[in-house]
Write a sequence for this structure.
């Protein structure tokens, strides 16, 4: 059964405002289920749990009880665990991905002082590279760089055979480029890393979580980073570790932190109102297929299968429609050095250049046609591929609520440049 897109669109109240949203990379639309979950959590986070019982006429006792806010924290851990096929005791919660990245980098310092090396992506998101690149200031630590294909934006897995050796302690991989949509071969990279070293593979899977299922064991990741806001959830991020035996090998984020628990990397409690939106966000992904049954993990797997098929269809329709215009440059897709788009692993995101027209003008024309895209933010890979020299690019990214009609509307607006 194909994804019921009309039903999925009904899960987003914001779509009724007359705009066509093609900016999932910047501001994903928030499902009504998430908005309601956050509102309910804010209202009830200070309330007593149902475990409290009346004693006499003037008091309450709560043996083992507490605030409802604690329930939201626990439910957030379980939801993230279900999303990646893990257990809740391996989940670290944080306010945003930048904070968690700095925390992980700091926790690895003692592990890296013994002459280790770290492998990063040369043109990966600077916010992902930054905290780990700073580790080269430690005595004896070497940072090595994996290079992208500047024709396609893809991330070749073969180069890791030369980069990884016995000194490698950490390999950082971005699962998909947020502006180009190219997906990294995480499983192939992880197999190479684990066959040649004892290094951990750290994967930022935030971008792909909105489009396909994630299985930690299958992809070989040792640590997975997820930003819930990237798939329409609240401003909460999470780290998921392969197993709990990894925690004693990390430095705690605060004095007196437990040695072997995920909470050693958490800087403090998070707003329980926001945490109350994490489980609804995951439940939303699990419910995209209406007739999915079983546990939440099983429903996530079933829904992800249909979602991935639909997103692949939309991606090809988007590329084919824009290529048909002629003269338009899709970065990493058109051009002499581009590869076969039908063989590339992609999520439905493209960055386009209209020759002779700067990106701001293209963006404004699209806004005039009630199409919400973005002028591509500064990105090292786009710059290496010539986007700035061409006057900038406009990024288009799709969500599960988008349709072929949205793409056709975009195509007509871009075609107006002649």
């Amino acid at each position: 059964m194909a994804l019921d897109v009309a039903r999925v669109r009904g899960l987003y109240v914001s779509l009724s405002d007359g705009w066509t949203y093609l900016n999932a990379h910047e501001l994903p639309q928030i499902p009504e289920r998430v908005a309601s979950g956050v509102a309910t959590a804010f209202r009830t986070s200070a309330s007593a749990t149902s475990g409290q019982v009346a004693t006499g006429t003037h008091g309450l006792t709560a043996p083992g009880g507490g605030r409802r806010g604690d329930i939201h924290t626990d439910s957030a851990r379980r939801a993230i665990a279900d999303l990646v096929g893990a257990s809740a005791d391996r989940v670290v919660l944080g306010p945003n991905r930048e904070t968690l990245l700095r925390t992980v980098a700091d926790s690895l310092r003692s592990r890296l002082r013994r002459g280790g090396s770290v492998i990063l992506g040369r043109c990966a998101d600077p916010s992902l590279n930054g905290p780990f690149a700073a580790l080269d200031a430690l005595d004896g630590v070497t940072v090595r760089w994996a290079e992208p294909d500047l024709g396609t934006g893809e991330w070749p897995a073969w180069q890791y055979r030369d980069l990884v050796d016995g000194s490698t302690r950490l390999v950082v991989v971005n699962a998909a480029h947020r502006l180009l949509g190219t997906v990294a071969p995480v499983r192939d990279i992880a197999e190479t890393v684990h066959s040649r070293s004892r290094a951990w593979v750290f994967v930022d899977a935030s971008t792909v979580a909105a489009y396909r299922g994630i299985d930690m064991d299958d992809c070989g990741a040792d640590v997975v980073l997820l930003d819930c806001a990237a798939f329409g959830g609240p401003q909460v991020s999470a780290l998921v570790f392969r197993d709990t035996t990894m925690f004693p090998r990390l430095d705690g984020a605060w004095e007196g932190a437990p040695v072997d628990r995920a909470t050693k990397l958490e800087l403090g409690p998070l707003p329980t109102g926001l945490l109350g939106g994490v489980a609804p966000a995951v439940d939303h992904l699990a419910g995209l297929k209406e007739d999915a049954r079983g546990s939440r993990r099983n429903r996530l797997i079933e829904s992800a299968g249909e979602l991935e098929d639909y997103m692949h269809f939309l991606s090809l329709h988007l590329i084919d429609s824009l290529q048909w215009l002629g003269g338009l440059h899709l970065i990493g897709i058109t051009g002499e050095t581009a590869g076969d788009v039908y063989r590339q692993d992609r999520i439905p995101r493209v960055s386009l250049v209209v020759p002779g027209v700067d990106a701001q003008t293209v963006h404004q024309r699209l806004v005039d046609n009630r199409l919400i895209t973005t002028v591509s933010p500064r990105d090292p890979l786009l710059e290496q591929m010539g986007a700035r020299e061409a006057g900038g690019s406009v990024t288009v990214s799709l969500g599960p609520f988008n349709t072929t009609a949205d793409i056709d509307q975009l195509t007509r607006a871009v075609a107006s440049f002649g």
Remarks:
- The chain has two domains: 5-30+304-415, 65-284.
- Residues 296-325 form the longest helix (30 residues).
- Confidence is low (pLDDT under 50) at residues 52-63.
